[in-house]
Sequence to fold (127 residues):
Amino acid sequence: MAEEKSRRHRGPAARRFRPPVSPYRCTARPATNSGRPGWLSAHRACGPAWVCDECGRDWPCPTLRSAPTGAARRAELLPEFSRITRHAIRDLRGRIDGPDPVAIVRRFLWFLPLTDQEARAVALRLR
Fold:
């Protein structure tokens, strides 16, 4: 009862759903190792350049892409990489030599077998 009264005094912001804090400090830099092998944890990046910290290639780099992506792993990757893809579209699409949003979606969601039409729909949704 006392907790309910204190919620009323905090206003509508106190009642809003607050999602759990992401383990990522920056869009793609994990704060913890999260169970990944050490060689894979070093391959991370952050916008606006989206270049791998370890090997200097476009991120997600070939080393990260070579990690196994079975059905269970894809289910783990999808929410976080969807969020990352949204940031990447905003960072990369405005560049003169940058990729179009469809190419960005295909690059960041490499573990999903997307057609061009599906990638275009995802890009429009994430803009």
Q: What stands out?
A: The chain has seven helices and two strands.
